[in-house]
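Hi C.,

You asked whether I'd gotten around to modeling the 304-residue construct. I have! Everything is below, sequence then structure, no commentary in between.
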Amino acid sequence: MRLGDFSASLFVDDSPLDEYDIVADEGRREITCYVPSQAGKKFTVRWADWTWEQGMDSAGFVSVDGLRCSGKVTKMLNRGTVQRTGFDVDERTVRDFMFSDIKSTDDDAQLHALGHEKLGEISLEIWRGKVMGTAAPRSYDEKPNDNCVVHERVKKAMVHCVGFAEERKLSGPTRRSRFCFLGKHPVSRFVFKYRPLAVLQAQGISQTPVAQRPCTDASIEFRPNKRVSVRIRALEPAVAELQKGQSSQTLPVKRTLDERPDERPAKRIKLKLPSQTNVGSCPRSLRFLYRKDFRVKGHTMKRK
């Protein structure tokens, strides 16, 4: 999705997830969509700043099911994308995001548990500002919840939640930056509502693919309409008569100049007339050609 100067997507197996029912609210600077989720699959949130040349830095903050993660800074000289792969346990350890199955319970103690209102949402808030150097180390007190237990009344159509993979060590310590926020509100907010593909199809959000069956001669059965068959039989004699008359006619053959290039044009035959030609001996159809004392190349023709 893209909103304003930024774009964002969810990636699974290094490929972007399909996005359905995209709705943008320019007034709130928010854009939402639905994406298909699959239990056990890790995912990554990636985003990019398309106006890095304007000299403004930005910071993005990812939240999963209401749990806010550490921010990522995009400096004005960085032209690539930024990504958040998981939750930082400490400066050298991270737990990757992954889709997990929800566990339901009938315990009323979980009926009014906090944080369930954001269940099924992955959001990204992007702020404008300026990087003002390196920040001091921070404490990592908040830990992700490994057991996503939801009351049956709250679960509704929810099937998945965001879980966390085993701890993974980083190649080096995480560098922290001191970021000065510009403004009181984020410039862009992306919301990804994740559901299993079957749920999206059942709710009409994603179209169900139509299974294509191979077409063979044995599987085709043509049943003509009875009325149409009667009309066809009634017209058969007339069609046969027309075809018979057409075959009896000979059509003139039109020759082109390049049809037979090996043939030479016919020679002209020079007509030699005697010195005296009797018009009466000429056919009637040619008598109109001769006038009294009509001369043709020195020959005189006289009418009787």
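If it helps when you're writing up: Confidence is low (pLDDT under 50) at residues 215-222, 250-263.

Thanks,
B.
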